[in-house]
Amino acid sequence: MTDTDRVRHRDTKTAFYLFTQQKLPACKPVLTPAWVITIFLFTGFIFIPLGLVTLRASRSVIEIVERYDTECVPEPFRIDKVSYIQDDSIPKNCSLFLKVHKYMKAPIYIYYQLDNYYQNHRRYVKSRSDQQLLNGQKYQATSSCQPVEFNNARPIVPCGLIAWSLFNDTFTFIRERAELKVNRKNIAWKSDRDHKFGKNVYPSNFQNGTLIGGGKLNPRIPLSDQEDLIVWMRTSALPSFRKLYGRIEEDLDADDVVLVQLMNNYNTYSFGGKKKLVLSTSSWLGGKNDFFGLACVFVGSSSLILAIVFMLLHLKFQR
Amino acid sequence: MDSKTPVENLYSVEPALNSSSRRSNFSIPSKASGGNSIREVNFSDLGSKPVRYGSRGADSDTYSTSQKEINDEDARLVHINDPVKTNERFEFAGNSIQTGKYSILTFLPRNLFEQFHRVAYTYFLVIVVLNQLPQLAVFSREASFMPLTFVLLVTAVKDAYEDFRRHRSDRIENNTLASVLVNDQFQQKKWKNIQTINLDGESNLKTRYAKQETLLKIPEKEKVTGLIKCEKPNRNIYGFQANMEVDGKRLSLGPSNIILRGCELKITAWAVGVAVYAGRETKAMLNSSGAPSKRSRLETHMNFEIIFLSLFLIALCTVVSVCAAVWLRRHRDKLDYLPFYRRKHFSGGEEDNYNYYGWGLEIFFTFLMSVIVFQTMIPISLYISMELVRVGQAYFMIGDTQMYDESSQSRFQCRALNINEDLGQIKYVFSDKTGTLTENKMEFQCASIWGKDYSGGKAMSQDQEDGYFVQVDGKVLRPKMKVKTDPELLQFARSGKEMKECGHIHDFFLALAACNTIVPLILDTPDPTVKLIDYQGESPDEQALVYAAAAYGFMLIERTSGHIVIGIQGERQRFSVLGLHEFDSDRKRMSVILGFPDKSVKVFVKGADTSMFSVIDRSLKINVIHTTETHLYSYSSLGLRTLVVGMKELSTSEFEDWHSAYEAASAALMGRTTLLRKVANNIENNLYLLGASGIEDKLQQGVPEAIESLRTAGIKVWVLTGDKQETAISIGYSSKLLTSKMTPIIINSNSKESCRKSLEDAIIMCKKFTTISGTTNNTGRTSRAGLTPVALIIDGTSLVYILDSELEERLFQLSCNCSVVLCCRVAPLQKAGIVALVKNRTLDMTLAIGDGANDVSMIQMADVGVGISGQEGRQAVMASDFAMGQFRFLVPLLLVHGHWNYQRMGYMILYNFYRNAVFVLVSFWYVLFTCFTLTTAISEWSGVLYSVIYTSVPTIVVAVLDKDLSRRTLLKYPQLYGAGHKQECYNKKLFWITMIDAFWQSAVTFFIPLLAYWGSTIDASSIGDLWTLAVVILVNLHLAMDVIRWNWITHAAIWGSIIATFICVIIIDAIPSLIGYWAIFEIAKTRLFWLCLLAIIVAALIPRFVVKVLYQLYTPCDVQIAREAEKFQTQIESGAVEIEMNPILDPPRS
């Protein structure tokens, strides 16, 4: 045993002794008025600027939101929208004019927004088979997909309520007679495309049943390239949600008018859901939402007020 | 013939240890001293052991049973040397013992069975089973089993380890060598002494002897046959009774004829015996079973809050199911085709409802599902955490060097693991005196002989030291311990029998040397010509007396059952012992009948003064009796224990009468003890008073300081002792229990009426003192210090009339107003009665501390029982929850560890409530946004791991290691113990504040992301990950905010947990088959995610921080003040000390 070993041995022994006697060296912070005031001031000075910056970011986002679920039903059918939407013989095309108020810089994100649509309903979120999405018909244990598992005793790919209710309104955008270029690629997560949806899995027996829930899929395109499906199957967290439809890769100038030609196929009328079309730019923080900025300003200013209150208290009741 | 493994049936074969080359003593470590694996041991039959006084108290409780004849159906028959016949009727147990509960095969089923006996585990199981129903499958199968499996695993590992240790000790014990002779090879029996330290902890020798009738049998030569009829195996280690039929004679066998398992054989090299109990039926094994476990006060309160939490859980579930009912009702027409519900199901062309069982059942299922989702609202994991924390706390208590007793080399023992935190809330301490406050090492101080007081004991001079020794075969014998001697008395003692006075002194010391049950042991010294005599015996008083006699030249050299050898002034004299009447608690004296070399026969009697003066012949020398009484009074006022010695000479006819009666009684088969007592009473009368002795029972080290500390801490110390009133009072003064400022009230009454009267007077007197102080009390809170404290001193006789009668209530009223209560001359059951008196009438916690068997009942009665592992055996320790070496360790135990344990446990319970509530409430808020269908955004695996990995370690670490105050501060200001009395760390108010805080924090955690992401493309898994991380960081920082001492382990636990959570979330999100695949990486790319985390944590913690700061800065508690003082090393102003003084005085009882 060398000397250093012995020293180390002794050190561990004393450290262990300190541990068993509960005497480990420790830092014991005590709140003093100075600390308290500093902490509140610090919080205030962090959060107010943060709030202002995020508010600014949120305000810089230009957003056009157009609700179209009622407008796109022709006047005579508005009394019974459900039978209109379920009647295949009636053409569902519809035109909207969107006025751009402010210059919008590309990329401009196209979202469709559904309100009062519970994509987080328990029955709904469970009704899918991730194994089938990846492995196709090879995977048999798809009972979780009920009630959309089989049709005519043949398995449905992709099975489950989520896929069955795929959103199928389509949009084309025309500015001054020229169609705007919309990029519909890369709207889904790359991880989903690569690892969650099979490259060799093709839709089969899909949407062939008595009840048609939504969009159909091209059976010649593998699931990993069906990006609308992939986006749709990332079920939303909240009953009011947006899903990415594509990107307009051209700038829009103020006072431009964009003609949207859409196919109003998707049935939200039966449960009073709203459909909206959203064009939005994005900031470093994301979309337009003032809440976070306001919350930060509120937290920051409360901290400042508390700091002042404690300062006064400290002056008045000095211990 | 040595058998290495235990032989199955040892009955009727004799374990002959018949040559010195073989192992002659079977020292088997009994489980009693075996270590921590046994938690509690219950001595159900020890309550009857009388107050020890003098000697041989232990045996007297057997008399009640020995009167009864053993019925055949209650008896066990052992045919000596005939195994076939013995086992004919019964299958007796083999000698292999098994304390281990499990074998490898039975471990799994049995351990599971035992674990599910606990409510908490059953709750887990029910939840898991519910989750397996297809309609209720909230979690996947694997995830739902996870918490239960984890908990079972942790507990199973713990149990397995404990069992492994038991198996190991079993193996050691079962492989002990023993010589077992099956054939007819035998020997003779001899008397022997055995050491029973492993059994009852009394390391002194006990005399066990063989019956005279069997002594002469030589089994090698003749076949011994016979029948032993003995009791069924029982726990009483001091009692045994049996009959033996040998050669047509019936002999009765008693406790002094049996050697118990675990004993060590001394003096004799070998012994031959008949095994009557073996294996698990031995008394040692029967005594190592468990007792009902106690539940701590804090846990009882906690269970109440858990009931409230259950109600809250039911309320949450009801809200969810009612909302779900309303939603289903309102959408009942749409459900069939609702894209996210779609009740209609088409299978084979038929239409039916899929997974829908009607409105009513759906609501019911929703309710059950919400129970599953919100199950953690009831913090079941808390029970497991508490167990682990208690183990940790026990580890530190055991390892505390300040509670390590150097002299006996004994560590603190934590025998009960459920009540650590009760140590922080003790209000009453009931203490035994002898052996607890005092050392129980007796020292002879003074003697009064023939009316003359000799109390000038000085340290011996060189000349005196050489003075007493005996030469035997050219060897010098000296007593092992030296005693201070009175020179004058020494002079007289040496001068022989010539003077009349010296004759009395001669007889007095002869009585001291002879009238006892001490066994002298001759020890070798480095010098071959000098040997030391060590006196071994059951009573420390007797030891002291024999050493004293030796110091005055009356040296006990040898004792056998038939004679004793005493070296009188250096000359060996042999006396035959014709009879010995052992001490019992009724007579309170013992006597020995000695035959002198000159054929005269004398009886020497020694006993308690009350019992002795009633048998002294008062016609003789009345003035001597009076002066002796005066001396006795002054001795006991000095705190000395007194014994009176008397003698008488027997005439031949008297001796003959006595002898025949004695022989008859000794051989009696029924009621032997009673008969012997009768014989003793007949001979012990008309005695000639020789004198009295005063023995000092020294106070233990640090007792006055400890009592002072406890009193400052607001703990009431009551002393319950079997000693005389004067002795008790003087010990009270020397231990600072009583002070000169106190007004003593003494109650000694002989009837119920006088008891009532004295109690009433005392209450009035007490009221007078309290009203005097009451008037000043109104002026200011601190003026109570001027109150005259009252000390109540009450004796056992009065208590006989008071306890179990309507006077109890008055005694309680009175004693509540007294600052000290001293009960003397109390019997063991009365001790328990006094503890019960307090325990049943208040909510205050009681602690009983004692060392002897007579304290067992009180130790078991009190909320917390502490045993002193001292001289008097292990029974107190076996019955106790905690055991330690010295009384003064009570101060660090209560003031330091108790305070810490209480503070830590209180905080941990509240924190666990909060931690689980936050998580459940976040889930609850989300349910409100999912059509009340109990979808969880937080992945199910995170939900399961939340209380297993994400947040469990820091709670346990903080609850084991955090200290609110340093040991030094706690010992310096015992008032800080008041925190436990005032329930500062856990109370209803704190619970509600915690729950409101949990409500706010969960709302912030949930709604900030909700609103920040409202109407965005966020998916459920991503926001779920955000919530998971937010909650985990939040609860860990919440804990961090409350940590008082940050050492590296705390740092590692808290920050490590947060990092572990990130890692776990990443791992969960890296599994492609799970729904949240890659979500964490997607959301972590966005800046809003990180900003949300920051905002959540700050906004959630601000209210708590503000409240904490306001509380700490503007209404600080004592602990807080002391903590700041500790930090800033400043003096606590007198004001602060006075604030601390307040809680100590009780609010007056209504």
Which terms would index this structure?
heterodimer; A: 319 residues; 2 domains; five-stranded antiparallel β-sheet; four-stranded antiparallel β-sheet; extended; B: Rossmann fold; 4 domains; nine-stranded antiparallel β-sheet; 45% helix; 16% strand; disordered N terminus
Describe this structure in words.
The complex is a heterodimer of chains A (319) and B (1150). Chain A has 2 domains: 30-61 and 287-319; 62-281, no CATH class. In chain A, 34% of the residues lie in helices and 18% in strands. Chain A has 9 helices and 11 strands. Chain A has a 5-stranded antiparallel sheet with strand order 1-11-3-9-8. Chain A has a 4-stranded antiparallel sheet with strand order 2-10-6-7, with no helix packed on it. A two-stranded antiparallel sheet of chain A has the order 4-5. In chain A, a hairpin with a 2-residue loop joins strand 4 (150-151) and strand 5. Chain A is extended. Chain A starts with a helix and ends with a helix. Chain B is an alpha+beta fold and 1150 residues long. The longest helix of chain B has 38 residues, at 890-927. Chain B starts with a strand and ends in a 9-residue tail after the last helix.
Short recap of the structure:
Chain B: Mg(2+) binds at residues 432, 434, 851, 855. The complex is a heterodimer of chains A (319) and B (1150). Chain A is α+β, with helices and mostly antiparallel strands and 319 residues long.
